Amino acid sequence: MRARFLMTALIGAGVLAAHSVPAQAPSTDAQINAIVQSILAQMTLAEKLEYVSGTGAWDIKPLPRLGLPQIKASDAGLGVRLSNPVGVAYPAGPALASTFNADRAKQMGVGLGLETRLSGFQQIAGPGLNMYRTPFSGRAFEYLAGEDPFLGAVLGAAQINGIQSQNVWADAKHYIANEQEVNRFNLMETVSERALREIYMVPFESAVKNANVAVVMCGFQGLNGANPVCESHAAIQQTLKNEWGFKGFVESDYAALKHTLPAAVAGVDIERPSANIFSPGALGALLANEQLSQATLDDKVRRILGRLVAYGFIGGVPAATGESHPPFAERAALDVAREGIVLLKNEGQLLPLRRETSRNIAVVGKLATGAPPTGFGSAHIAAARYISEIDGLRQIAGTGANIVLLDAVTLDPARSAWTTPSGASGVQAQYYANPTWSGAPVLTRVEPMINLDTSGGAPQSGDYRGPVYGGGGTAQPASVRWTATIRPTVSGAHVFKARANGAVRLYINGQLVMDNGDGNPLPGNVIPPTIPVNARVMLQAGQTYNVQFDYSARPGYIAVFGGFLGAQLSWASLQAPPNLSGFDAVVVAAGHSAEYEGEGFDHPFTLPEFQDELIANLSRANPRTIAVLHGGTGFDMQGWIDGVGAALHAWYPGQNGGQALAEILFGDVNPSGKLPITIERSITDNPTYANYPQASNDLNFSAMTYTEDIFVGYRGFERSGRRPLFPFGFGLSYTRFNYGALSVSPGIAAGSGRVAVSFDITNSGEVAGAEAAQVYVAQSGSAVPRPVKELKGFAKVFLQPGETQRVTVYLDQRSLAYYDAARNAWVTEPGAFDILVGASSQDIRLRGQLFNLFRSVTNTRVSNPLPAPELVRLGPVHP
Ligand code: BGC
Q1: To test the ligand 1 pocket, which listed residue (72, 75, 169) has its Cβ within 8 A of the most ligand atoms?
Q2: Four-point Cα dihedral 236, 239, 242, 244, nearest 10
Q3: Which of 413, 606, 748, 770 supports an S-S bond with 451, CB 3.0-4.6 Å?
Q4: What CATH code is carried by the domain that includes residue 469?
């Protein structure tokens, strides 16, 4: 479906209860265990050995003899991917994190769970709970924790409760330490036990203790000697199961397992997608020679059955209803986008745009057209319905507004102007039956643009089906040569962008300006993306240039998950068009998309396509330039941030992101997103720079030590004293909030007592808005190195102009504690702790103190990342 009209009606806002599914299943552990035991007792050894591997797809095998149905799962971190049509495309993980709002996490969880259930699935392979530690991370867009474990502990558990309220299993992934993609099937990571416990494990610990998550997916990477981490007995059996009391089952990431016995003993309960390492033969042999105990095998089966019983799946599961895109889910995607977009800069109150004075708006960038972008990989959702950013602007700006896309500075194959060698509009295409453009072409024709799609889908500019190069799969042309002339309208740097599943060469006036060798399918990547190649070329206005673009297909690329088969070429100016200064505002949609960011590969810190230069040039020509960034990470903004009038990080805002963005730009929605990450001035400032200085996809990159230890993100910046460009927790609003009247009560903490941190927030500006207030705890003079401060509470409040609200956030001993590896316990030292309340990690408004009376040592079973009074914010927990 194409772009559509904005959602205006307030459908189903916040109605969690409306979609709660009454539990028909037994709800106490004793009841569940009794039923499980009776089923287990009837299973033969052969049936048990079969049960601990998947069906080959996402499912758990049926066992009709005992009334066990097939359990179907779908990837659904950011939208239900396997339903038909695909489900609602939600904003990316960091957008949810930017809301600093457990209600939005619950709402999105309910939406996801509801759609999963309506489409006949029982499990979601998500959410992603890994941490943000480097802007190179290919999968940061999937993860909802940002760089703070407390934030992840709240939002992850809330989203899981929302999903599981729909009687659908959530699956916390990827356990543990999947913070980068480089060499993901073999990288051996070394991470201290303290960093694991204080940072990386916390969202998972909360998912287990505060949301009773049904499934945990162990990851691909190696950790502390176990490769993959799925074979880490310490992480899975000991920590997750024995210490945290995880009741569900552990599944392997897809084909992650390498060795049968270590994986079985470490605590993996089911191999996905199918029996490879956990084949009945391999497991049976280990049982026979007593390397594996019957009790270990039974525990795996028992854990899986336990979740079937707890969710009432014995005897059958609900069928698909045929209903898709329920209003509740649509609304959830919109609400998260509205609260998740972060306003980073607003010079001279350029924003919000006023309708009376903002009549002519220039839009730049392909990302503003079509479905709002998202990342590549198993979380990729090709939105079935959407509001593009330019359509959102057109509809919100109202009648009479002139919102124009500037083709000359927009890299889009459909907007690049070509003239054939004979003077007609278009390009001349010559198709060859060999990979080397040799001999006579088998087909010559004029095409309107260079946009050949060979994936078998609807062709956009040609559907040549010639001899197959390299054999197998979809028929592809062996090689193609396109020739045309172009006539730039401005002088200076231009960019040419090619995206192709193979080798490309670009000649301008006979000079080679682009050569990607033999193509760039990433080695060892099972889901290889099709990453574009860009060239920067100086051109003169009014001159005619001959362009020759050669493409030769290669195997090893895919058309799914956001990939692409075929060849595209576009060109655009990096210089501002002469009339740019006449526009009331210029909106540039920049950053990443599935073309540059996603699963299985890491990416550079710099913006692609020479966008730095483009944004700087546009803002020089028109200071009312608004940069809208897309992607799952921070970017290098040094080259242009001082010059732009305004900047926003829109992450991947989901299918309704075009509406949310336009509402924010025009002030119909007051931005309230806060950065869940630190954005550095220079990559050298990032605390992980020492161990991961440059994005890499090198298969020889075999080991990485998290040398920054617990000092990741703002914890590292504050220790080194390096000033970030935008600090953790930062985000602007169209109103002002004043903080006051802090009380810390009781001011003396001891043992299991809770401390209430209360303060007033006043909206002292002219418009309504929401503030995410943050509570940090700081201890000086500790016996161990501690971060300057750590987030231990937050609250989001919506206030009318002039309104004041008293906010209370709770702390307990864990809020003050560090993890002591020698004791395997959480330790709180006696002494003074500073309680810092602020609008960001660098904007502390109120300071109080708390005195902790006694040393307390709490074991890892009992200790909870969230204080008990905060748990009510997370919604009901599924038994
Ligand atoms: C990813 C998982 C995903 C699975 C199934 C793997 O490559 O790491 O996150 O759930 O594929 O698509």
Answers
A1: 75
A2: -120
A3: 413
A4: 2.60.120.260
